[in-house]
Design goal:
Number of helices: 3
Oligomer: single chain
Distance between the termini: 94 Å
Helix content: 10-25%
Number of strands: 8
Radius of gyration: 34 Å
Shape: globular
Order of helices and strands: HEEEEEHEHEE
C-alpha cells in the first residue's frame, strides 16, 4: 500500500483522479437511493395532494336560532319535529335561516321573536322568497306574534285545529313585511332539513327550494 495515495502498490497504473471520480459516482448513487429501502426496496407512494376546491359551507341552525348562509352554502336544521323552519332567500345572494321552536329553548328565541330577528339579520336587503317547512299542523299563526310562554296562568292559549298553511303564510308575510305570494308553507315529516343557497347570476333572484339547484352542463341555472 502506498502511503501517499492509499492505493495498492501493485496497481501503479490506476490514477488517483479515477479513484476520486469513482467515489463521487458511488456517493451520488447512494444519495439517489430510496429513503425507505427497509420497506421492501420500493419508494412509498407520495401522499395525495389536498383538493384546492373547498366544500361549500354548511350553517347549522338549531331551535330558537336565526343565522345567515352565503351563496353556494347551505342551512342545516337538525331534528325538526314540532318546529317550523323559515328559509329567507335574499335577492342579493345568501339566505337567512330560522328554526322556530313551538316551546322556547332556554337561552334562545321565543316563537314571537323569530320574525323580528330575521328582519334584523337581513338588514333591509330585498327578499326573493320565504320557504316555511315543518310541523304545520302543530302551529297556530298567532304563535309568531305571541308565544305560548307569553300567556299567563289561566289564559286561553290558541290551539291549531288543522294545517292552516294560509294563515301561517299571512302571519309570516306580515311579520317580515313581504308580499304573501313570496311565502310558501309546506308540511314535512320529522327529521333534519337542509336548504341549499344557490349561487345566483347578477340580476337573477333565488328560487325557493330545499335541495340541489338544477343546472345545465355549463353550470348555469336553467330558466323555467
Amino acid at each position: 500500500m502506498s502511503p501517499r495515495t492509499g492505493m495498492p502498490s501493485y496497481a501503479p497504473s490506476v490514477r488517483p483522479s479515477l479513484v476520486v471520480a469513482g467515489l463521487a459516482v458511488a456517493a451520488s448513487l447512494m444519495a439517489g437511493a430510496p429513503a425507505h429501502a427497509g420497506d421492501g426496496g420500493g419508494a412509498r407512494a407520495a401522499a395525495p395532494l389536498a383538493s384546492p376546491v373547498s366544500a361549500p359551507a354548511r350553517t347549522v341552525v338549531t331551535e330558537g336560532q336565526v343565522k345567515e348562509a352565503g351563496p353556494g352554502g347551505s342551512l342545516l336544521y337538525p331534528s325538526v319535529t314540532s318546529c317550523l323552519t323559515l328559509t329567507v332567500q335574499l335577492r342579493s345572494g345568501g339566505a337567512v335561516g330560522a328554526h322556530a321552536s313551538l316551546f322556547q329553548v332556554p337561552g334562545e328565541l321565543r316563537s314571537d321573536q323569530i320574525l323580528d330577528r330575521i328582519k334584523a339579520v337581513a338588514g333591509g336587503r330585498a327578499v326573493a322568497s320565504v320557504d316555511v317547512r315543518g310541523a304545520v299542523g302543530a302551529w297556530h299563526p298567532g304563535y309568531f306574534t305571541k308565544a305560548i310562554e307569553s300567556y299567563g296562568e289561566g289564559a286561553e292559549v290558541p290551539v291549531p285545529t288543522g294545517q292552516d298553511a294560509a294563515g301561517i303564510a299571512a302571519a309570516v308575510a306580515r311579520g317580515l313585511g313581504v308580499p304573501t305570494d313570496l311565502v310558501t308553507v309546506t308540511d314535512v315529516p320529522d327529521g333534519d332539513q337542509i336548504a341549499e343557497v344557490p349561487r345566483i347570476r347578477s340580476g337573477e333572484a333565488p328560487r325557493p327550494h330545499s335541495g340541489e339547484v338544477p343546472r345545465t352542463r355549463s353550470g348555469a341555472v336553467p330558466r323555467s
